[in-house]
Specification:
It is an enzyme of class 3 (hydrolase). This protein is of the alpha/beta class and 428 residues long. The protein folds into 2 domains: 3-66 and 369-424, Urease, subunit C, domain 1, CATH 2.30.40; 68-344, TIM Barrel, CATH 3.20.20.140. The chain contains 14 helices and 16 strands. The protein has helices spanning 88-101, 106-122, 136-149, 172-186, 206-218, 232-241, 248-254, 272-281, 289-294, 302-306, 326-339, 346-360, 387-394, 399-409; strands at residues 3-13, 26-37, 40-46, 56-66, 68-74, 125-131, 154-156, 158-159, 193-198, 223-228, 262-266, 284-287, 313-314, 378-381, 415-420, 423-424. The strands form 2 sheets. Strands 5, 6, 7, 8, 9, 10, 11, 12 and 13 form a 9-stranded parallel beta sheet that branches. A 7-stranded mixed beta sheet has the order 3-2-1-4-14-15-16. A hairpin with a 2-residue loop joins strand 2 (26-37) and strand 3. Helix 3 packs parallel to helix 4, helix 11 crosses helix 12 (346-360) and helix 12 packs across helix 14 (399-409). It starts with a strand and ends with a strand. The chain binds guanine (GUN) and fe (iii) ion. Fe (iii) ion is lined by residues 72, 74, 227, 265, 317.
Length: 428
């Protein structure tokens, strides 16, 4: 038996907070303990009540929370972050597609996988859902490295058979067959989960969307991820390519892509009817705030979806995203909400990057909650890690101030440790 007690200020969420005063939405153990055993959380509570005779790692005075979850990221785009001067469609053609072409090479994909996972763990991210490149070799590298690190990871090969360089195109048949083979090989192997990933309407022919729909119907155990209504030029092109559809979302609807396992990246420029349909089908939008700033795409309206009962995830969208940090991403979501005359509260933001994303992914029984029986993926946060944080913390009055400072000023530097299945895993 492999067990350990982690001592620190333990914070876990029980449900979505309804504002800064909603203290019943979370538990804080000021001198708390997380008992991890064989990769799972055995117990959480006050350190004084923790079982005796077990080795203790003392993280006081740091905060211990569930590991962060990034619900939308691109594995092959680590080298095109901070690429200057383009909005979505130009950015894809100028930077993204050339970078993804290199992932046909297994050696390149493996080297990039090492860097990718190092960056996730450095930033406290213990689960992510990634788009790989069109090449099965990229999926192999992605899941093999995830397995090596023992992480719960979602992902899949992008399906794309038009409007991209020839080296990045599959066909309806190979998209289907390669994905099916990858599902058989990886879904449920260790902690890996496969996400069927038609890139977006612009890069798939109707025949390929048909094949994607068949794959999705045959694999209800898999997630589905794509991009939706990120950019106004993109929407116009999507509607031109699918003239029979009533709108962008309807393209995906027609091919059976919507449902509780569907993750719709960006989903910025939506009609009322589209928001209703997302809620009705139980689909989820994914807020990518730093990416939407970076590409000038627009402001995601979480409140409008929530008002209809739709729950949304939040994500970096690296390489268009401006940071690998889910703290920074939560801070950016605050800025987006401010532009909409709302103030996202720090408890809700922290819930979102942990339990909230786990709920959207349908994985809250396994990750994101710090509940006994769930997987011991945790992050240890030092709220005094940098001079600006230390200065701010001198005047912080409560947990709200501390969490907010971490969201606005924090990044990988505040991550003192990252635990994956109970094992300290932050790269040196
Ligand atoms: N839409 C289709 N592909 C992509 C991508 O790689 N990044 C972003 N931000 N949007 C996309
Ligand atoms: Fe994306």
């Amino acid at each position: 038996m492999d067990e350990r007690i982690l001592r620190g200020r333990v914070l876990r969420f029980l449900r979505r907070p309804e504002g800064v005063g909603d203290t019943a939405a979370f538990e804080l153990f000021d001198d708390g303990a997380v008992h991890v055993r064989d990769g799972l959380i055995a117990w959480v509570g006050d350190f004084a009540q923790a079982p005796a005779g077990i080795a203790v790692t003392d993280h006081r005075p740091h905060l211990i929370t569930a590991g962060f979850i990034d619900a939308h990221i691109h594995f092959p785009q680590g080298q095109i972050t901070a690429s200057w001067g383009a909005q979505l469609l130009d950015w894809l053609n100028t930077y993204t597609f050339p970078a993804e072409t290199a992932f046909a090479d297994p050696a390149h994909a493996a080297r990039m996988a090492t860097a990718f996972y190092d960056l996730l763990l450095r930033n406290g991210t213990t689960t992510a859902s990634a788009f790989c490149s069109v090449h099965p070799a990229s999926v192999e590298a992605y899941f093999a490295e995830g397995q090596k690190r023992g992480m719960r990871m979602l992902g899949g090969k992008v399906l794309m058979d038009r409007n991209a360089p020839a080296a990045l195109l599959d066909t309806p048949q190979t998209a289907h067959d390669d994905s099916a083979a990858l599902i058989a090989r990886w879904h449920g192997r260790g902690r890996a989960l496969y996400a069927i990933s038609p890139r977006f309407a612009l890069t798939s022919t109707p025949a390929q969307m048909e094949a994607a729909g068949a794959l999705i119907a045959a694999h209800p155990e898999c997630h589905v991820q794509t991009h939706l209504s990120e950019n106004t030029d993109e929407i116009a092109l999507a509607c031109a390519l699918y003239p029979e559809a009533r709108g962008y979302l309807d393209i995906y609807d027609r091919y059976g892509m919507l449902g509780p396992k569907a993750l719709l990246g960006h989903a910025i420029h939506l009609t009322e009817a589209e928001r209703d349909r997302i809620a009705e089908t139980g689909s989820h939008a994914v807020h990518c705030p730093t990416s939407n700033f970076f590409l000038g795409s627009g402001l995601f309206d979480e409140a409008a979806l929530a008002a209809r009962g739709a729950t949304s995830a939040i994500a970096t969208d690296i390489g268009a995203g401006m940071s690998w940090s889910m703290l920074r991403t939560g801070g950016a979501a605050y800025a987006v909400a401010q532009l909409q005359k709302r103030s996202l509260d720090p408890f809700t933001a922290f819930w979102w990057i942990t339990r909230g994303n786990a709920e959207v992914l349908g994985l809250a029984d396994r990750i994101g909650t710090l509940q006994p029986g769930s997987e011991a993926d945790l992050v240890v946060l030092n709220s005094h890690a940098t001079p600006d944080l230390a200065l701010r913390m001198e005047a912080a009055r409560d947990l709200k101030d501390e969490l907010f400072a971490l969201l606005i000023l924090g990044d990988d530097r505040v991550v003192a440790e990252t635990y994956v299945a109970g094992k300290a895993s932050k790269p040196a």
